[in-house]
Specification:
By secondary structure, the chain is of the alpha+beta class. The chain contains six helices and ten strands, in the order αββαααββαββββββα. It folds into two domains: 64 residues, no CATH class; 151 residues, START domain (Alpha-D-Glucose-1,6-Bisphosphate, Chain A, domain 4), CATH 3.30.530.20.
Length: 225
């Protein structure tokens, strides 16, 4: 999903909502003067006092507007195979090259250590990792196959583990039309060798994805104002 470059201009008055609904009430922006993002947020906040919660209103606004507001969009995708992938998406105001290097340098805070066990090619490797003691399962070791498509995506899949039955996911980078920003998406699918309540596993997982995206954005936008 690409955000039109005209929507990235937060300081201008070029952002106009086409209409959204909250608790069954539909509103339409009419007139020649276009609203800024700030005025849109204020309008929705006022409307929500009458029709529902602010979170509910914004959850129903177009995804591009939510990204522009600085939100991390969280979702759970169930595939036809039955696997459930946790997904998180954020907008980062920095060039693609800067975001790409930030993603490659990002380290999972749950890892105790990580090393390349086998370099298959310049863009593919087998990585050995040891996780710090994780909730409900304790310390974990695993081998993952990591494949890079430079400046586009990084994917990983489980090779072997003492506690993970599945560990799959990756990073997806989508530049905006003007090339000044990037939509960064992180996905993850995890299965353990023991029963854990699904809602607990997914809640913890989504929170970790959100924290990682926030951390990358803060690092990138601080070093690239």
């Amino acid at each position: 999903m690409s955000i039109p470059s005209r929507l990235i201009r937060l300081g201008s008055k070029r952002l106009t909502p086409a209409g959204f609904s909250c608790s069954g009430t539909r509103t339409r922006a009419v007139g020649r003067k276009k609203q800024s993002l700030a005025s849109l947020a204020a309008y929705v906040a006022a409307l929500s006092l009458l029709t529902g919660s602010i979170d509910e209103c914004f959850a129903r606004t177009p995804e591009s507007l939510r990204l522009l507001r600085g939100e991390v969009i969280l979702a759970v995708e169930q595939r036809q195979t039955g696997e459930r992938f946790l997904k998180a998406k954020i907008l980062i105001h920095a060039p693609l090259e800067v975001v790409w290097h930030a993603v490659r340098n990002e380290r999972d805070p749950d890892l105790e250590w990580s090393r390349i066990a086998k370099q298959i090619s310049q863009t593919e490797a087998i990585v050995e990792e040891k996780f710090k003691p994780l909730p409900l399962i304790g310390p974990v070791r695993c081998l993952r196959r990591v494949v890079e498509a430079p400046y586009q995506r990084i994917d990983y899949i489980l090779v072997s583990s003492d506690h993970f039955r599945a560990l799959e996911g990756g990073w997806l980078l989508t530049p905006t039309e003007d090339g000044n920003s990037v939509i960064l998406e992180l996905s993850s699918h995890v299965e353990l060798d023991r029963w854990v309540p699904r809602f607990a596993l997914e809640r913890i997982g989504l929170r970790k994805l959100e924290q990682r995206l926030h951390r990358i954005r803060k690092t990138v936008e601080t070093s690239n104002p």
